[in-house]
Amino acid sequence: MSAPFVEIPEKEFVLPGTRTCAGCGLTLAYRYILKALGPDTIVTLPACCLTILHGIYPKTPIAINAVNNTFASTAASAAGLVAGLKALGKDKDFTVMAMAGDGGTFDMGIQALSGAAERQTDFIYVCYDNEAYMNTGVQRSSATPLGALTTTTPFLPKQQPKKDFLTIMEAHSPSYMATCCSAYPRDIYAKFRKAKEKKGTRFIHLAVPCPPGWGFPTSQTVRVGRLAVETGMVVLFEIDEGEFKLTGKSLTMARSGRKKPVVEYLKLQNRFAKMTDEQVEALQREVDSRWEKYLERSEP
Ligand SMILES: Cc1ncc(C[n+]2csc(CCOP(=O)(O)OP(=O)(O)O)c2C)c(N)n1
Ligand code: SF4
Ligand SMILES: [Mg+2]
Prior knowledge:
300 residues, THDP-binding, thiamine pyrophosphate binding, binds magnesium ion, oxidoreductase activity
């Protein structure tokens, strides 16, 4: 799939009046996710910035049905919704989506997600990744990259690399798996349309820049997201019934052989202000080695 030009419906499901921060990458992406999935979608979500976007009961700017669950049970809650819809004979009428942050997925939700994916439960699981526990004040998660400052790594930046969660999920053989980034809304829309048509467990990783947590101006969300992809920090791909393909900007980069150095991405964000030269080099090596592996798997 190479950056398809698709018509995006005008109907909005994220209405004005949200409580998320200015420049929030999650809010930007959610608009396109819901346009792709449509009104007959039920989302189940744990505490996270998405809960803030959904608002405080009884008011919400989000025009689809939602269930709030606890951290460890997002995928279990989705499995319950799927079973309930089946019992009512309505499973073909609704799309069930579980959506959680990186803390709620890489760390706290992994057990229920692994179980549901192994059973091939019929739902879409989305991990939106802002690379820390943002909702509670930017604590480190296992998705936080090497060298990032957070409020729990305030003086010495994080010393461990980001957990390779994509490999963990691929090992579950989901019927469809994709990565996307809020800076590329058409790519998001196309991948969620595709995921909606599939059966079984579908897993989507969504990279979402976060101005207050990453330390960049609210006007730069799209620029930071694009640089994440252009430097190979985030790689856009899909695995459809086991077949791997680079997509969108990552496919263009693979064909042109052009990839920017990670420092261009790092220098825009205060969270990387204390990285040593050695850490920048280590991160560049990590990104290059992962990129080479993706190129080997990709079409020539
Ligand atoms: C079991 C449990 N532990 C901690 C919390 C407090 N809490 C609420 S939101 C949140 C952060 C979640 O981080 P993430 O999943 O990455 O989503 P983000 O806030 O970054 O959008 C935490 C720790 C909670 N609600 N429940
Ligand atoms: S903290 Fe980050 S992810 Fe959360 S609402 Fe603000 S910009 Fe969005
Ligand atoms: Mg997070």
